Amino acid sequence: MWSEFRPCDRLKLEQLEREHLAPWATFSSEANRERIEEDDFRPAFQRDRDRILHSRAFRRLKHKTQVFVPHVADHQRTRLTHTLEVAQLGRTIARALSLNEDLVEAIALGHDLGHTAFGHTGEAVLDEILRGANSEFPLPSEVAAGAGRFKHNYQSLRVVDLLERRYEYPGLNLTDEVREGILKHTGWKADFGFPLRRPESLRLEKPSHLEGQVVALADEIAQQTHDLEDGLRAGAVRLAEVEKLPIALRVPKREGEKDWNRQNRLIRGMIAFFVSRTIGETARRLREWVGGRGIQSREEWLDARDEMPPVMVGLDPEAESLLSEVKAFIYRFIINHPTVNRQDWRARKVMTALIRAFWTNPRILPTYVLLRASEELDFPYLRDISISNVEREIRDRYHGSPGFARLVVDHLAGMSDRFALEEYALLEQPSAEQRFSGVIR
Fold it and tell me: Does the pTM of the predicted model rise above 0.85?
């Protein structure tokens, strides 16, 4: 038999999906993509996963804060390690529910590409600025009115649709199913003021497909349990306090264990509890909903899927309550810890100072941003304008443009913590040690 072995091509792999995945899974053979591409041996969602994995935005996640800044210790989560952990949990859930693992993994790897430096604080600052609500840098009202809002899941979609440049066209040309899952891994609104490309392809009025819902819950489980572990390792909270949580009573203990092993067993046990309860509850909901409608085939599922409840992948009420208690505990003892609040204060200072500097004097922006202004906004390239006309051009064109505000925000949103701190030092804390590098970044 093996003497006749042939490798699996795309068509064979798509056939295996149809044979082995549940009717409610999303099949690669049915994926939609804006630009038709040459045939490949990879199914559509595997190709998308690979493109995200090789993107520059993905590599920058290693220097972006999850909760604790990544450069003060070796073992704290970064946005990159969090992303990998979400992918792992998502694949576990998807495999148990006979969903498409490639789709889940692609969504998970791309879900936080739009996250800013300094965690959710950076995200909040950029949204405040675009709304004209930042008292330290009030964006002109006429600019704020047309610039739109900022939220990391929308920005993640902007990264894969527009900002990544690896091909002869902007973006990565991902399938609509991956794009939809990236957007819907956290809250979204059909009328949120963000410049989305091809919004009609995202089914904004509908709940996410099941693979997208898996990533959304895997993201929440990974975030809460791993933030708790990072807080324990950082000394922000004591193990004895965590062991008083109701969820801790669900994790078996062993007499005489060292603290470090009790801690590891607790975190492992919490993850196993929430993942297993997710699988059990979701299977129950699917059986009830599919059975109640007499769905017997893939075609019947496709006809009915837009009528399914907004949240099909979820925890049972008891497990949901336990996760909420963990989340409240983390906010009280870790997110609200003085050290984390100091990080947030510094983040606000850095992000506000950088956008103020770039907006006030666009000439200090990297060349690629000014080239984008020329290409996308039809502005004259600022470095080609005579010195006598630069100030007028900035005043009349750049400072009156909501589109330019969005380009500056794109630049800030893509920064890692390290790069943002470097830029802040260069622009706000000049020193004799700084040298001209000869390279424009």
Answer: yes
